[in-house]
Amino acid sequence: MTSAYRLLLFAALMVPCTTRAETYAQKLGWKADDVVLILHIDDAGMSHASNLGVMQSTEQGAATSFSIMMPCPWVPELVNWIKKNPTVDSGLHLTMTAEWKLYRWGPLAGKSVVPGLVDEQGCLWHSVEQVCAHATPDEIETEIRAQILRAEKLGIEITHLDSHMGTLFARADYFERFLKVGIERKIPILAVGGHMTHAMVENGDAAKALKPLASKIWDAGLPVIDDLHTSVTSWKPPEKKERVLQLIRELKPGITEILFHASVMTEEFPLITGSAASRHADTEFLKSPELKALIKERNIHLTTWRELKKRRDQVGK
């Protein structure tokens, strides 16, 4: 080996490898280094406080998406707002549980139709584990369809589907029905299949199980995202702003969704949930000037499920 060849080989080894897998953002037309972000709010329609959080975080803040709990009693209030704001990203937070102690709801399909989803009080079960122990996949699919039907009757344009408390990701046969309905109705579902930097840490088992299905979801004409962050609500209010800002500073290229539970501190809301202060902090963060400044500084592309579906349709097969 000549000295010149050794020098060339050494130089080549010293060059860092920059090759990385194509992101789903690239597949949808963004550039390789683009950071694309969905700032998403769960639990819309759950309460008046939840609705105010969605409205304020969308109108005054940087939130780009939300999903609605159709069995909950405050859905009509949100529907009236959506009709005045028809371009908002209004998904369904498909709901198979009623977790609170003093504030409950039942299935939309009817208790006699989906008895495995109903507890001794006539409400949906408190926990995901209870649902998994009692409800059949047929009952899950029936309730999914009932919630979609109610949304359509109320005039909601359904931009995407996801799962309250992750129930539809808890069993493979539940997820199969979730996927089946999404593909059949051509409605995007929450599906992560890219680098999964946060998803693998937070929900490793579910992420590993889902990743092989990403290509099937994509090939069915639905968009897929690269990563999902779900832990914000568990962060304490005093530290939340800086922690989320740091999270956003470190986001990798690709499409990432960050989940919030933005709400407003109404008089009754702390009686519903012990996480009222944390949810209120979500609203304040999404409205914060620091968030808007960071989005501009990093040249982050804010997006919606509506836009993802439009881009997926344009890409075609």
Keywords:
single chain; disordered N terminus; 15 helices; 317 residues
Could you please describe the fold and organization of this structure?
With 317 residues, this protein is an alpha/beta fold. The chain has 15 helices and 7 strands. Strands 1, 2, 3, 4, 5, 6 and 7 form a 7-stranded parallel sheet that branches.
Q: Please give the alpha-carbon distance between the first and last residues.
A: 49 Å
**Helicity, as a percent range:** 40-55%
Sequence stretches where pLDDT stays below 50 over 5 or more residues: 1-18
Q: Note the run of SSEs as H and E.
A: HHEHEHEHHEHHHHEHEHHHEH
Please summarize what this structure is.
This protein is of the alpha/beta class and about 325 residues long. It contains 15 helices and seven strands. Strands 1, 2, 3, 4, 5, 6 and 7 form a seven-stranded parallel sheet that branches.
